[in-house]
Amino acid sequence: MYDLAVIGGGPGGYVAAILGAQAGLKTALIEKKALGGTCLNTGCIPTKCLYYDVQLYNNAKNSESLSGREGLELDLSALVYRKRRVVESLVGGVTSLLKSRKVDVYSGTGKLLKPGTIAVDEDSEAGGRTLEASSVILATGSKPAVPGFIHIDGEFVQTTDQALDSTRVPKKVVVIGGGVIGMEMANIYRKIDSNVTVVEMLPDILGTEDKDVRSIMAREVQNAGIALQLGASVQEISKDSGEVFIADQNGQREKINCDLVLVATGRAPVTTGIPASELGLKMEGPFIKVDGFQQTNLTGVYAIGDVAGGVMLAHKASAEAEVAVDHILGQKRTLDPCKIPRCIWGVAEVGAVGLSEEEAKEAGYSIKVGTFPLSANGAAQSMNSSVGMVKIIGEAETGEILGVHIIGPHATDLIAEAVTTMTMEGAVEDLYQAIKPHPTVSEAVMEAALDWNGLAIHKL
Ligand code: FAD
Fold first, then answer.
1. 40 CA to middle of ligand 1, Å?
2. Full-prediction pTM beyond 0.70?
């Protein structure tokens, strides 16, 4: 009999198992494929390995200070090999962590038979065992959501599941979807010299981000030579002729030739092994319905991460693991969705938290906005990467930080400072009163906070 059984070993599930075991709970984890889940194996980490390598290649190729640039070549096999080594090392790390915490790991597909009882499939290494546990956490994650008329053949038409292992440089790629994953992949393809077109149904890419971030990103995307087809939908894909047929909002059709189609149309929750209607488990659309403590409607059954809906991000899954385990241990705390940072590693880096300017206004806040362009930041200039800005949205009277949006170098790291300040209920003033090291891009955060008060030093 276990105190806790977790189904799914991604950043939600394995973190929940470690936290449970650290708190003294006898813990089991069931994983059907690979520990680390989407994040370590086919998501966050693989994309970032590729991102940093193609960035290096591109910087070297375009550097005015390096000679011999003409002969520079990218070895895609070496790049994919390095990515695999990084993934192996991190998955190995998770395996060791679980072992050291004495978590019993079962390889196989877990099926929730009833609250507290999980069957591990017959064919698995765990050999058809049934596990009993006082509490169960469902952390089964997500998979690519592919429109019904699109067939993923793994060659001409791929999702990131195949693309991140490919050693082929496509000449022409059509990326379907201008969301985070689509724009990250478009950047990678463009930097390995593919011709890239992004087709997005909505009028803009990265629809959930602040308008100023979107407009800088759209400009940079176009400067990078990535074509955008906005307000357009894919109607048909022909592998034989190597064509993608798209239509605009007036039904005007156009075809794009390509040798690769990357489908990045979102992610769908994985509910294999969770027969919701049999169990009487309440769903919210395709996701498992949870309350603020990650509890489902079934006693002792929790759901976390992508399968529980909300923003589909690894750190959100891990944070929900903490909330669920805390609740099992009798402590009640909840997550504030407004304090979950969002990051994009695209043609430009983005780090954002909280409300966009439009959302803050819609929510009825009286706001003041402070901005600072990276063109006036010494560190960004030294890096030869001074496109971007920091934007801070604060409640006009109190200085409560409602949203911070950073686009430019190191944005994904810098946003952590804003998250920490917001978590500690600091105000905009706190973002400039804390001394920033020089020369760093963090000074732009300080300047944007000063600008919020009309006091920016290095801004005309
Ligand atoms: P998952 O990581 O999907 O893990 C679920 C696990 O459960 C899987 O290992 C699966 O095999 C297992 N499982 C499912 N059903 C069963 C069952 N019945 N029995 C046993 N095991 C089961 N997020 C970020 O924060 N930053 C990024 O940079 C980022 N980049 C991404 C890039 C790409 C290309 C993709 C696809 C995603 C990216 N994400 C990123 C999102 C991130 O990967 C997910 O939000 C995160 O992995 C969700 O964690 P999870 O634990 O909920 O699920």
1. 8
2. yes
